[in-house]
Amino acid sequence: MLHLSFLIILLPLVGFGVLLAAGRRLGDPAAGIVGTCFVGASFIVSVGVYIALLGVHAPVRHYGQNLWTWIPVDRLQVHAALYVDPLSMTMVLFITGISTLIHLYSIGYMKGDKDFPKFFLYMNLFVASMLILVLGSNLLVTFVGWEGVGTCSYWLVSFWFTRDSAASAGKKAFVYNRIGDVGFLLAIFLVYDKVHSLDYQVVFAHIGEIGSGNITAICLLLLVGVMGKSAQIPLFPWLADAMEGPTPVSALIHAATMVTAGVYLLCRVNPLLHASPDAALTIAIVGAATAFVAATIACAQQDIKKVLAYSTVSQLGYMFLAIGCGAYTAAIFLMVAHAFFKGLLFLGAGSVIHGLHDEQDLKRMGNLRAYLPITFITFAIGWLCIAAVPPLSGFWAKGDVLDNTWAAHPALWVVGIVTAALTAYYMSRLTGLAFFGKDRWSESTGEAPALDAAHAHHADGALAEPHESPWIMTVPLWILSFFAAVAGVMAISGSRFSLANWVDPVFGASLYHDNLSSTAVWVLAIVDAVVAIAFVGIGLWLWSQRSERPALEGAFLRGAWYINELYDTVFGRPSERLAAFCADVVDPKIIDGAVNGVAGAFRGSGTVLRRTQTGYVRNYVLGITFGTVVVLGFMLTRMWWG
Amino acid sequence: MSINPAWYLSLSVVLFAIGALGVLVRRNVLIMFMCVELMLNASNLAFVSFARQLHDIGGQVLVFFVLVVAAAEVVVGLGIVVAIFRRRASTNADDLHLMKG
Fold it and tell me: Which of A326, A491, A544, B5 is the most buried (most CB within 10 A)?
């Protein structure tokens, strides 16, 4: 079964090909069903490979599959090769599983969209790219997937490109990711320069020859790369804008899978991070800062998807914090749990938006539990998960991260627990505003919500009563809420679901062991639980009855710490001025000057020289004769006096 | 007794000069054409006399080439002259200055 690993990538790729060739003809909903089936088949193959991998003896539990030699140039030998081990398998399982559910959900959500087949085309390509990213056995194959998901993210964020905001959000996502990619590329070059190989296992085997300074440089460059993809400070503002894409895209790409690529990459290169404590500490600090800053911003956002977007940034910060502490298992645990509950929350938000005919403003929701019962129940599970209320998965995952942080860097633990409190608070605020209180959506505000022709399927009356979504959208919600609730079993050490046992062969010696006493673990768990429950209570109490509390929504937080304005002032405006200078001075004066100057010089010399072209044969003959005489005379003088 | 080769060369120079002068000073296309032929044959004479004096057959071989080229040139050149004459009823070279820059 292991040798069928390539099918995991090939199936969504074939789905992409089929949709590319016949998507328009298949139409709505056949194109969606085709897309879903291919991704679902990929999931089934993944489960098969997973079972086969379980059968391999743990210390050698990995499988490399060399498909073909991709770049054979002298010493640079890059193979298109896959590497299946517990880490990549974990990624593959939840990527294909959640992708299948979100594809299914999208059949309902995107119903009636005029670009319905194109949506699934991009989604299938995205899944294939993401699988290339996690299954690649060397940095360059990973980079191919890395760029593939970035491109699909760009296409899908600006899917409704007729809307100006969506088009520019796509560009923003792409540019931020490119900035990160520069770091990733430089890291690849540096690795090749030192090891003359890009294969992960070869690099790890030669780690002693790289030198500690170079390892730190490689790790920091990789950090720049993952900052872009995983939306960490300072490259995080794009993720909030990426919410312009359709909600299933936000759920799949900007919550569950693509943004966790950075976490995956850092876990993949764990031996390098282990060899560079400075880089690890930097990652921990970046992660903690991102977690805190994003959580504060999420407390004051009005758009339901923006709250979830900043929440995603914050949770990714937690994962980075865990990686920085060397707690890779905790990072992977939180990533998997987060994929379930954040996918669930986004799909729930999509169901709300769908039910309210494209209303995303929390202040115009309220009391939706009465109208969307299934969405409410499943969303509530997601909410309590991310708020880390025991015994749901979020509690175990976040507890794992916080325990390791407490043992490694107590100062960062304080940031972590404050962020946990904020998380519980803002998610309760969101739930309180959306599902409790009065039905504010029915209050006429004088204008219907702005509707766009691009999703005309929602445009059937602005203030119709909210309706529950069809089964095709609620089934994924149920499945995800089940996994979000029970994913905590992976924390039980020694059980067959134990994540720590499963990924141990990958991390091995790099893993940080917190060595906390059982008393300390209990105290920390109780602190986590008390903080979570208390702030869930505070959030609900504050926001379930009233929708306006200006004191808690400062302009600074609503404006996302004015990061966008800062970048605009520091980078945007000077770049604009530079561009204007180039357009107004360099281009017309220097570039055009050079081109026109050359043309002018030739025209001038031509004007002079054309006089010699009289058209009279005798003039030409005279010229030839004179020339001959001169040449002969020269030769004669050379003969006599040379 | 043999004639001094210098005479042959002198004749060749004289013929060539007459030809060149003719091309330079005459306006009639046919005359210019004949002067070109004169120059070609002057050079042929020089070739032959050098070949004889230096005992090198190469000079004589070259003469054959020149003859062939001259024959071809006459064919094309006369054709052009006839064509021009048909259009303009004039053989004055100075009337043909369409290529003036």
Answer: A326
CB within 8 Å: A614 and B23: no
Q: How far apart are CA A574 and CA A586, in angstroms?
A: 16
Q: Which of A244, A194, A145, A202 is nearest to A455 (CA)?
A: A244
Name every chain A residue with its beta carbon within 8 A of the beta carbon of B97: 614-616
DSSP-based three-state secondary structure for A66: strand
Phi, psi of B62 (to 5 degrees): -60, -35
| Tokens, residue A246 | 């359709």
The predicted pLDDT at position A464 comes to 64
Q: What is the distance of C-alpha A153 from the center of its chain?
A: 8
Of A268, A248, A200, A217, nearest in space to A102 by CA: A248
Contact call for residues B94 and A615 (beta carbons, < 8 A): no
* Structure confidence at residue A463 (pLDDT): 53
**d(C-alpha A504, C-alpha A513), whole Å:** 12
Give pLDDT tens digits for A296-329: 999 999 899 999 999 999 999 999 999 999 899 9
With CB atoms and an 8 Å threshold, state whether A617 touches B32. yes
CB A85 within 8 A of CB A63: yes
How confident is the prediction for chain A on average, in pLDDT?
89
Q: What is the pLDDT of residues A218-232, one digit of tens each?
A: 999 999 999 999 999
Please judge whether A616 and B93 are an interchain contact, meaning their C-beta atoms are less than 8 angstroms apart: yes
| B30 close contact with A: CB closer than 8 A | no
Unique residue bearing structure tokens 């940031």: A415
As a whole number of angstroms, the distance between CA B29 and CA B13 comes to: 23
Instruction: Tell me the average pLDDT across A254-277.
Output: 91
Estimate to the nearest angstrom the gap between the alpha carbon of A600 and the chain centroid. Answer: 53
Between the CA atoms of A597, A602, A605 and A611, what dihedral angle is there, to the nearest 10 degrees? -140
Q: Which pTM was predicted?
A: 0.79
The tokens describing A291, both together, are 């977690």
A347: which 2 tokens?
Answer: 């799909």
- The one-letter code for the residue type at A302 is Q
Is A604 strand, coil or helix?
A: helix
Gap between the Cα atoms of A428 and A441, Å rounded: 19
Distance CA B6, CA B100 (A): 43
Query: DSSP character for A469?
Result: P
Say how far apart CA A254 and CA A241 lie, in whole Å.
Answer: 11
